[in-house]
UniProtKB/TrEMBL annotation:
Essential component of the vacuolar proton pump (V-ATPase), a multimeric enzyme that catalyzes the translocation of protons across the membranes. Required for assembly and activity of the V-ATPase. Keywords: Coiled coil, Hydrogen ion transport, Ion transport, Membrane, Transmembrane, Transmembrane helix, Transport. It comes from Drosophila ananassae. The gene is Dana\GF18112. This is V-type proton ATPase subunit a. InterPro entries: V-ATPase_116kDa_su, V-type_ATPase_116kDa_su_euka.
């Protein structure tokens, strides 16, 4: 089988790169994205590695880029999208220029930001002073103005003397509005009620110079008497972070001061505007190149992180690295190394050697945009062991088909088709959406799964003849009404005997007449239940057969005899026989025959027959009927049950006894081989390393090594597997009945929505009926999308996922591998965008 059916063949390679070509060579490998490096410096501290200085340098560049990006976003400038023109990793000369440019830009931005904060602080102080001067105009009455003016006219009299004579002093300022009440209470306490406070809330908020957030403040004037009380008030103002401003007591002086402050504010506003324009021009210029710089620095940092995984040889003239590479990509890796050496003019080429190893390689399944979604479903259960059969290829068909069996409705399937087709046809435009959220990313990543699920749902909906709970009479019903008009009108229900009313078989799917039948649910129950068992057994048989592919690839022929044969016999002779009896029952019994034992009334129940088969019991048939469908059936059933019972000890003891026998022979052969081998080795020779192989004793590829495991553990392990398989064969077959249950539930929900919602609007008449139908149709569409498409679709999706993970893949899939994670710039950038 090719690599399409299993993971790619991997090779462990060793690289020898000259130090001057290391940066460019790793850069080329990052662009190709097909190499997974191994850490050769596991015991070396991260801060003691060779390129830690360069990594710190990249961290500093990233910090500067983040700071500039924050400033750009703060100004509302949109960064350009460069998905179509992603720059390559910079060379050392470009790194120096980039570092100098970022240093200059950051310094300029810090200086501009600091100047802007200083000017905004001055602007805030002047604005608060203006507000204080304007709002205190109403705080002073005419009498207060006269008293204060008389104090000023008394030349040579200081403020303390004036207050001693009975004149009032005052302090004016601004305080945050949320602190006003506590501030007023504190002033009352320290002065024992001897402070008179007047305040006025500012209508417009002020802006914080550092953060730009709005601040709501209040202007206050505190009147007092005495120098000691004045000092106390100033201390309280300092404690409450209130800003105090000089406020002349003279009305004329206040007017003059307001005019001067307004003039200074206008000048400062002009300077702030010019500073903002200069800052915007600088940021607009930087924003054009910032995304490219960010990608270049990320690539550079990833290169140095990767170089830290390399080891320096003894002569300090060569870097040595180890990596996993898909064997198909070896020529690409060699070309990347040669291009990296040629880019710096290195005369000594880089070497790539494939080395042998017993270590299990990583698992790499090459996917495209169509198969990636299905591969993700498989990997979510467990990454396949190395070179194990990959079920994702078959899941592309079985997953949407089993989903459609539960979601069979032509109308609902068409909705999924339209949604999936829209995402597929517009995938290039939709792939640019970066902030769509996690749910959108899940839907878009599974766009091909949704499209196929919709197509298969349309197919099964056509088979069920179900479109929004209604049927289509495409080919014309094959049932004929043989009753006259009076009989039809006078009888609420009539029976159509198949021998007289059925005129052949409906060409495709269900006959639309079943939509009108009273026994519709009974018929669909029997039909869909049998279909679910048939599909379930076929799915499990396919899973058991897939184990043969693994056994053959890993050269384990004994496992075919000791595991596959008893498993497939147990499954086919019991449940495969039950499926055969369903088909035989459909074929053997006919309503138009005159032989009574072959009429539908004499058809035995397959379920009762299967139970009697397992319990070796008999059920008396109705009079004139036969208990069995053919003569040799009872003897054949006994043989099948006995063979199935014999398969249990076959599975239980076969493999442990084989391991025990082969272990003795291997020990004897190894003993002789070591003696002769040592004799044949020449002096000074060493045995060649053994390459990784997929035989039974290897650790990879779905095989278990049993060399060091005691026989008691092997017996216990095999007993667990045997019990699990026997019991799971029964439980898994019953588990496939969820196909019937969810299909029936989906059809009934759809019918309930039609009968209890939309049909109410269709029964209305007149203008009011038209308006009512419009509203009811909208509600019906909403319920259909929310309940039947989204909720029922998600439920069917999860049940289908369980059928694949548990019922299908447990028959052959081990999933003990680890994923291949190549060093790829694309994966690094995509991962950071998702974060």
């Amino acid at each position: 089988m090719g690599d399409m059916f299993r993971s790619e063949e991997m090779a462990l390679c060793q690289m020898f790169i000259q130090p001057e070509a290391a940066y460019t060579s790793v850069s080329e490998l990052g662009e190709t994205g097909c190499v997974q490096f191994r850490d050769l410096n596991v015991n070396v501290n991260a801060f003691q590695r060779k390129f830690v200085t360069e990594v710190r340098r990249c961290d500093e560049l990233e910090r500067k880029i983040r700071y500039i990006e924050t400033e750009i976003k703060k100004d509302g400038i949109v960064l350009p999208d460069i998905q179509d023109d992603i720059p390559r990793a910079p060379n050392p000369r470009e790194i120096i220029d980039l570092e100098a440019h970022l240093e200059k830009t950051e310094s300029e931005m810090i200086e501009l930001a600091q100047n802007e904060v200083n000017m905004k602080s001055n602007y805030l102080e002047l604005t608060e002073l203006r507000k204080v001067l304007e709002n205190t105009q109403g705080f002073f009455s005419d009498q207060e103005v006269l008293n204060l003016d008389s104090t000023n006219r008394a030349g040579g009299v200081d403020e303390a003397t004036a207050q001693h004579r009975g004149r009032l002093g005052f302090v004016a300022g601004v305080i945050n509005r949320e602190r006003v009440f506590a501030f007023e209470r504190m002033l009352w306490r320290i002065s024992r009620g001897n402070v008179f406070l007047k305040r006025s809330d500012l209508d417009e908020p002020l802006n914080d110079p550092a953060t730009g957030h709005p601040i709501y403040k209040t202007v206050f004037v505190a009147f007092f008497q005495g120098e000691q009380l004045k000092n106390r008030i100033k201390k309280v103002c300092t404690g409450f972070h209130a800003s105090l401003y000089p406020c002349p007591s003279s009305h004329n002086e206040r007017e003059e001061m307001v005019r001067n402050v307004r003039t200074r504010l206008e000048d400062l506003k002009l300077v702030l505007s010019q500073t903002e324009d200069h800052r915007s021009r600088v940021l607009a210029t930087v924003s054009k190149n910032l995304p490219s710089w960010s990608i270049m620095v990320k690539k550079m940092k990833a290169i140095y992180h990767t170089l830290n995984l390399f080891n320096m040889d003894v002569t300090k003239k060569c870097l040595i690295g180890e990596c996993w590479v898909p064997t198909k990509d070896l020529p690409i890796v060699q070309k990347a190394l040669s291009d990296g050496s040629a880019a710096v003019g290195s005369t000594i080429p880089s070497f790539l050697n494939v080395i042998d190893t017993n270590e299990q390689p990583p698992t790499f399944n090459r996917t495209n945009k169509f198969t990636r979604g299905f591969q993700n479903l498989i990997d979510a259960y467990g990454v396949a062991s190395y070179r194990e059969c990959n079920p994702a290829l078959y899941t592309c068909i079985t997953f949407p088909f089993l989903f459609a069996v539960m979601f069979g409705d032509l109308g609902h399937g068409l909705i999924l088709v339209l949604f999936g087709a829209w995402m597929v046809l517009s995938e290039k435009k939709l792939a640019r959406i970066r902030n769509g959220g996690e749910i959108w990313n899940i839907f878009f990543g599974g766009r091909y799964i949704i499209l196929l699920m919709g197509l298969f749902a349309c197919y099964t909906g056509f088979v069920y003849n179900d479109i929004f709970s209604k049927s289509m009479n495409v080919f014309g019903s094959r049932w004929v009404n043989n009753y006259n008009t009076s009989t039809v009108l006078t009888n609420p229900s009539l029976q159509f005997p198949p021998n007289t009313s059925a005129q052949g078989v409906y060409p495709f799917g269900l006959d639309p007449v079943w939509q009108l039948a009273d026994n519709k649910i009974i018929f669909l129950n029997s039909f869909k239940m049998k279909l679910s068992i048939i599909f379930g057994v076929l799915h499990m048989v396919f899973g058991v057969c897939m184990s043969v592919v693994n056994f053959t690839h890993f050269k384990r022929p004994a496992s075919i005899i000791l595991e596959f044969v008893p498993q497939i016999l147990f499954l086919l002779l019991l449940f495969g026989y039950m499926v055969f009896m369903m088909f035989f029952k459909w074929v053997s019994y006919n309503a138009k025959t005159s032989f009574q034992p072959e009429t539908p009334g004499c058809a035995p129940s397959v379920l009762i027959m299967f139970i009697n088969m397992m319990l070796f019991k008999n059920t008396p048939p109705p009079k004139g009927c036969n208990e069995f469908m053919f003569e040799a059936q009872p003897e054949l059933q006994k043989v099948f049950v006995l063979i199935g019972l014999c398969c249990i000890p076959w599975m239980l003891l076969g493999k442990p006894l084989y391991i025990k026998f082969t272990r003795k022979n291997k020990a004897h052969a190894n003993h002789n081989g070591q003696l002769t081998g040592n004799m044949e080795l020449a002096e000074g020779e060493t045995p060649l390393p053994t390459g990784f192989s997929g035989n039974e004793e290897s650790a990879g590829g779905g095989a278990h090594g049993h060399d060091d495991e005691p026989m008691s553990e092997i017996y216990i392990h095999q007993a667990i597997h045997t019990i699990e398989y026997v019991l799971s064969t029964i439980s898994h077959t019953a588990s496939y009945l969820r196909l019937w249950a969810l299909s029936l539930a989906h059809a009934q929900l759809s019918e309930v929505l039609w009968n209890m919602v939309l049909s109410l609007g269709l029964k209305m008449s007149g203008v009011g009926g038209a308006i009512g139908l419009f509203l009811i149709f909208g509600a019906w569409c909403l319920f259909t999308l929310a309940i039947l498409v989204l909720m029922e679709g998600l439920s069917a999706f999860l049940h289908t996922l369980r059928l694949h993970w548990v019922e299908f893949m447990s028959k052959f899939y081990e999933g003990l591998g680890y994923a291949f994670q190549p060093f790829s710039f694309k994966a690094i950038l995509d991962g950071e965008d998702e974060e």
